[in-house]
């Protein structure tokens, strides 16, 4: 196995110069080319542990997500990992399970692995806790905006997305609209509920929600919440689900009660995960550009590591209405099927 001493001899430079090239230090272009050529010729493999001790960097990034399953987190992780790997770095992923204790354990695990930067999609840790953490280790926060960490946050305009969804239903003639929210401890759920209310209130004759039932962002939660609406006798001709998973559960519950989508009840989701276009009917929804979220978060993490990240915050990612088959015109505002 070749050594750094042999590389230095082959390139005709000092060992310290080879170290600077390996660690991204300042050398002339000509010197860098000679060292890289010597490395290739000798098939030199740097000792990763030795380099990490010398530079206090491991070239490893850590990511905490709520879950490792499902299309939403899959797209997020895949895009972030691809960007980080392009820069010859590695990404370690841990699950926080959307619980404060789980999120803290995942962060501690990644810190023990000596990750250079953490990318965090956490739901239960407070802003204050994340601000304090950022003073110990560089972090990028995903799906959440913290003003004190503006340059390190990548997030969606959730309220605007909910307004787009609700406004479509109103434009199609629906006046009795129910909403299946996510867990109300989560900020994105709160923002989507706020957008739902804002769109209803903006009408010339402000509308009241038919009902708001709290769900859990899971298929089963959407099913249970819709069954509750039906059992309670709530009148609604349209249903806005805070994500596509719950929309699937809602459609199942409606069918079991002999209600057709969209003929009897229109349904709109949120996220536009890959299966939304394959449902029957194809699901009208709000696109969450989650792959873009993963890409931007990884790019900012790389800049944070090398000290080139500007503190100026980014504008939130823009949601987009995706119109398919699950929402139709409602002719008579007083004629609800429920």
UniProtKB/TrEMBL annotation:
Domain HTH lacI-type: residue ranges: 2-55
InterPro entries (UniProt xref): Cro/C1-type_HTH, HTH_LacI, LacI/GalR-like_sensor, Lambda_DNA-bd_dom_sf, Peripla_BP_I
Pfam family, one: Peripla_BP_3
Record flagged with keyword Metal-binding: no
GO molecular function: DNA-binding transcription factor activity; transcription cis-regulatory region binding
Protein keywords: DNA-binding, Transcription, Transcription regulation
Residue intervals of the HTH cro/C1-type domain: 3-49
Protein name: Transcriptional regulator
Native organism: Reinekea blandensis MED297
